[in-house]
Amino acid sequence: MQLDAVSFVVVDTETTGSGPADRIIELAAVRVQGGRIVDRFATLINPGRSVPPFITRLTGITTAMLVGRPSADEVLPDFLDFLGDGVLVAHNLAFDRKMLEAELQRIGLPWPGNPTLCTLRLARRLLPGLPAKGLDGLIRFYQIPVENRHRALGDAEATAHVLLRLLEEARRQYGIDTLEALLTFQQQRYPQYKNASPLVRLRETLLPRLPEAPVSICSGTSTGGFCMWARPATCRPACVST
User: Fold this and answer.
1) What is the H or E stretch that residue 11 is in?
2) Residue positions annotated with a catalytic role
3) Exposed, middle or buried, 10 (CB in 10 Å: 0-12/13-18/19+)?
4) What would the pLDDT profile of 172-185 be if each residue is shown by its tens digit?
5) Are strands 216-218 and 227-230 parallel, antiparallel or unpaired?
6) CA–CA distance, 208 with 68 (Å, rounded to integer)
7) What is the reported pTM?
8) Which residues contact 226 (CB under 8 A, 6 or more apart)?
9) In 67-209, at which residue ranges do the beta strands (DSSP E only) sit?
10) What is the mean pLDDT of residues 131-160?
């Protein structure tokens, strides 16, 4: 199937922790098709237990916010309907799959047989010279604007935009334009650049970010130096285009 025709369902979960007894407290998914987000699913979930303080500090989700919210056995059938026959995508899929699979087992539902895709695995293969391939690192690398980081919908939307950029990389670098080729590619061994030369790191990390159109240059950055990546709306004094 051509990638432009594929329905990707990008998922993110917020949880009480990562242990076997921990529960999902927020679930979100966005559907990506034809190069854009076309639908969204998001809900808080009552886990039947309190939210640890460190999770509240990270996500802003409190125990009080979950009182009266639906339980997992109410939410997951609706999520599975939203997923349909789409490709399930997440950043570090192993974690979200572990949490979702545990919740499904608790209510007697099987893991869906949908194809799965991990944007972390793709990033390791497509951007081997990039030092940080976590979601924050990719957000910075691709300069993706994010709202509500560490909330399920905000992270799902950010991951969806990362996915779209990685699909572009796959097409550009390897000519990958079908789902079958992409699923095979994510399973391949990826190069290790730990001891690579500076020129290799430069090629892998800087060159993909060079703009195709003219950029703005200013001398009014906060550090007082020249800024070749400046955006006129955020620089002082105003930038001039070249």
Assistant:
1) strand 8-15
2) 150
3) buried
4) 999 999 999 999 99
5) antiparallel
6) 47
7) 0.79
8) 217, 218, 219
9) 87-90, 116-118
10) 94
